[in-house]
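stuck on this one:
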Amino acid sequence: MKPSHIALPRRSAVKKNELKRILAIAIAWTVIDFLIFIIRFATDNYAPKYESTHAGSLKAVFLRELNVFIFSFIIGYFLIILLRNLLNDKSPWLNLLIKTLLLVVVAIAMNFFIYFTYSLVFEGKSVGDAFYKFVENTFRRKWLLEKMPEWVLLFILTQLTLEINQKYSQGVFLNIIVGKYLQPRNEKRIILFIDLKNSTPIAEKLGHTEYFKFIRDVIYCLAAGIAEYDGRVYQYVGDEIVAWWPHTEQNAKKCVNSLIAARKIFNHNAEHFKRGYDIIPEYKVGIHSGNVTVGQVGIAKKDLVISGDTINTAARIRSACTELNQKYLVSKEFITLLNMKDWQTESVGLVDLKGKNEDLELFTLKI
């Protein structure tokens, strides 16, 4: 959920992903409409609402699907951007009902243009006759009632898909559906832990409700920075974010760049945090890379779980930031993978991390 007052860069990855989801809706609905139209038109007992013999011509079908695509894109924009922000404070069921009703209105407008443009182009009717014929066929012949269940079902399924997709990080839901991690798999990943600094005194100062709003805004800024460089959020735990990337040198650079992007987003919204909470957020970061085990768990609620020494060590490194008074601490394994210049990092020496048998050499990032 995006706080309406948080500003993002114009070409941010979050906005690009919103555009991708809108395009996905437009393409999916156009393909579905095309398949349904072809099946119905090919069925002997189907009487098309287009009375002309041109109803199944290539130009007619193209005109129809062009209208469907344009209005599906508009509906996608309503769903992904306008209605989501307008209905943030409404209950899920009321949210779903209002969206569905509004989208049905837009769908009627879409079908009007499909029918209207068809009557003008292929049947040569006047504007008045084309409009009258649309009203006659849509409302007086019960065509609207026949189409309504189809629209409502499509809208509800689309909204549920969007909600499920937002619930899981990129690719997680698909991996669960295809059963990729039914059996545990060993993979190499870069693990990033980000934790809010001084969270306890901040909570005492703001109170429960304002602190929650503060955390929501902070997490949004951090998650936006991570998304900017293709990071995948593994989980949110209170005021903490755990994210990961596949284990490559390129992704190690993306991991660092995501921290720089998050800092820029915070700077861009500094006035909001100052006016709204009288606090400029500070956070600490721990990064480690190595082998992890990924597997699916749960019955009523399924999820993908990452386990292993790598993720535990990343958490310990993040905790060491407080003891060593550092903002960014990373392991030697990550530094080796990152291949940064000497002046971009500085060793803090061997550190005794809780739960580790051997001391680990840690480095600060000069970014």
In short: The chain has a mean pLDDT of 83. The longest helix spans residues 13-42. Residues 172-365 form a domain with the Alpha-Beta Plaits fold (CATH 3.30.70.1230). The chain has twelve helices and eight strands.
